Each structure stands twice: as C-alpha cells, then as structure tokens.
Amino acid sequence: MNKKIAVIKGDGIGPEIIEESVKVLKKIEDKFGHSFELIYVDAGGAAIDKCGKALPQETIDVCLASDSVLLGAVGGPKYDSQPAENRPERALLGIRSLLGLYANLRPAKLFDQLRDASPLREEIVDAGIDFMVVRELTGGVYFGDHVTEEKDGEAVAYDVMKYSESEVKRIAKVAFDTARLRGKKVCSVDKANVLDSSKLWRKVVVEVAKDYPDVELSHMYVDNAAMQLCKNPAQFDVILTENMFGDILSDEASMITGTIGTIPSASFGDSTRGMYEPIHGSAPDIAGMDMANPIGTILSVAMMMKYSFHMENEAKVIEEAVGKVLDQGYRTKDMESANTTVIGCKEMGDRIAELIY
Ligand SMILES: NC(=O)C1=CN([C@@H]2O[C@H](COP(=O)(O)OP(=O)(O)OC[C@H]3O[C@@H](n4cnc5c(N)ncnc54)[C@H](O)[C@@H]3O)[C@@H](O)[C@H]2O)C=CC1
Ligand SMILES: CC(C)CC(=O)C(=O)O
Ligand SMILES: [Mg+2]
C-alpha cells in the first residue's frame, strides 16, 4: 500500500523520538512491501525558528493532503515568551482543530514487564491496569475565549469552557463504540456538580447511552476520578471525558503504568486521516541527551497502522517488538527498575527496529 505521512518532529525530544519511530516505519515498509512517503513539515518552536510562525500554511496544507500525521512534541522554555496566538502549543491545537480531530484515544495499559516501574502498591497493580481514555480534543476550555483585562485597577483573566450538544454527542459515540470492542463499560468523567458545560455533557451522554444498552454507563466527578485512578484503576474500561480533564487524567494514567514515555495516542475525526503522537510533551529537561523513551511514539505508529490504514498485522508486529525488547530487560532511564539494563533513546529504537524482520 502507498501512504503519505506528514511528519512533524517538533521541539525538545521531538526530533529524537521521531527518528526512532521512522526506523520502525522503514522496517514495516520492507517487511510488508508498503511504500510510506514521509513528508517532513514544521510546527511549533522549530517553525518559529525557521519562519516566525508556529503553524505555517504549508504545514496545514501538507497535513490535509496526507493520509496521516505523525508528531513528536512541541514547545519549550525558549518559546514561552511568544504571544499567546503564536505559541507552539497553539500550533498543535490549531492542527487538531483544522484537521477536525475531535477524538483522542489514549490507552493506559500496564506492560507486565513494567510492573516494578509502577509507583502503585503490588496488590493494586495485580488487579490489572488496562483502560482507554477517550478525550474530547477540539472543544472545551482550550478552545474557548482566553481573555486578560483590566478591571478595578487590577488584571483579571478568564478562559471559557464551552461545549455544544453535537460536540458531546459525537465523542460519546466514539467512547461507546470503543467500549463495545473492549470491556463494555464507559465511565463518563465530568464536574456536573458545579459546571454547566458538565451538566450538558452528562445529559447528552445519558441520551447517547440509550443506543448502547449492551454498554454499562457510570458517571464520576473528575476530582474523584483522579483519586480512583490511584486507588483502584482496575475498575476502568473506557474513561470518557472533556478536553482538559482528559489531558490531566491521561498524564496521571500514564504514570500508574510506569512512565509517561510509553503511552501513544490516536486522534481522529470523521475521516480515516488521523494524527498520532505520544501523550507527553517535549521534555526540555532531557532534550539532546539521548535519554528520551521513544516507545510512546513507536506505539503511536502502531496505532496509525491500525486505525488509519487498517493494517492490523503491522500494528501487532510493532507491539510485539516493543514487548520483546522489554522482555530482554532493556529500559530507558524513565522505566528503570531492579535487574534492568538502561539504554539510550537511539539504542532502544535500534533494538525495536531490529526485532521487526
Ligand atoms: N503534545 C505536545 O506537544 C505537548 C507539549 N507540551 C509542552 O512540552 C513542554 C514541556 O512540558 P512538561 O510540562 O515538562 O511535560 P513533558 O511531558 O514534556 O515532561 C514531563 C516530565 O516527563 C518526562 N518525559 C516526558 N516524555 C518523556 C519521554 N519520552 N521519555 C522520558 N521522559 C519523558 C520529562 O523529562 C519531564 O520530566 C512545554 O512547553 C509544554 O507546553 C506538553 C505536553 C504535550
Ligand atoms: C497543548 C497541550 C494541550 C498539549 C497536551 O498537553 C496534550 O495534548 O496532552
Ligand atoms: Mg498533556
């Protein structure tokens, strides 16, 4: 199969983790006889450095003309003083919105090999951690008005969290469809005891659930959900939640599985074109040190194979290669535990790619 993939390296560890995932893409091409045309474009700080704009029009055009997008991560301290509308993070939000990627799937699954890396107690880990965060990605407070103004002699700032019925309905359907293929349970996370946007969210989710009588629906307030993720993560199958809550809860979910470095994500809308990226950021504290964990990005490639290209076998081969490297005891620093061998980002990528033959 021929596929066009727009590749955005981004900032910080972005270029390092993308380099390793491209090694994996090349091996998949060879093994399965596919042709992946990789078109490199810039977004975020790297784009600001080149042309002054965090999201150049060429990047948008190439992404729209591609079958999928692979992204490392954007942002970093160098760009924190940019005007709000030209920050790297806004470029990322812009791509998500312009491509209509309203659904973000973030799997939190504990690799058996990483049990010792989880900070949770053994009996909690033993109960199993395997759930999917279905995060709404193009609405909510990240996309509402952001205002700073002077009032009564001082600065006042506010950000608007807004959802329409149709926005909630379409992401709820994604969550119920996802649950049907898994454990048939959806926990909708909101703050309906306080927020109007959450009250609407809950009402619409209850409506959508009527079309899925085979899926069990529960509701949880987000503060409780943050606590339950540590207390009893085995209770969750699919967590459905709005943009910012999903952003925060998925970082927490990653840590209970050992590290944020291994969690991939898939973002999609109504077409098969998706964007695939690890859930972490640009990790400026370890950028350029060959310490980044490339597994989240490599598993994002596996999600691209599965969700955008319907290449189930290719996805499986990548996941198995990751599993084998972990079986052999190799870890990047963030996954280190007793009796493991710490290796760098490049070696991790090489070893995973070598196991695809
Ligand atoms: N999708 C994206 O492009 C995202 C971008 N950001 C941006 O990234 C920058 C840094 O943000 P932070 O809040 O520090 O979050 P971060 O996720 O970049 O880093 C948090 C911590 O996790 C570690 N970490 C992250 N990814 C890792 C990996 N693959 N391997 C090993 N360790 C890893 C980092 O070293 C750091 O200690 C900011 O400019 C932020 O806005 C943050 C989140 C997502
Ligand atoms: C720009 C941020 C919203 C990115 C982020 O933290 C994420 O999507 O996880
Ligand atoms: Mg985040």
Automatic annotation (TrEMBL):
Residues 4-352 form the Isopropylmalate dehydrogenase-like domain. SMART domains: Iso_dh. The record marks 142, 191 as: Important for catalysis. Mg(2+) binds at residues 223, 247, 251. It is found in: Cytoplasm. It is an enzyme of class 1 (oxidoreductase). The keyword Chloroplast does not apply. The keyword Magnesium applies. Its cofactor is Mg(2+); Mn(2+). One of its GO terms (molecular function) is 3-isopropylmalate dehydrogenase activity. Homodimer. Belongs to the isocitrate and isopropylmalate dehydrogenases family. LeuB type 1 subfamily. This is 3-isopropylmalate dehydrogenase.
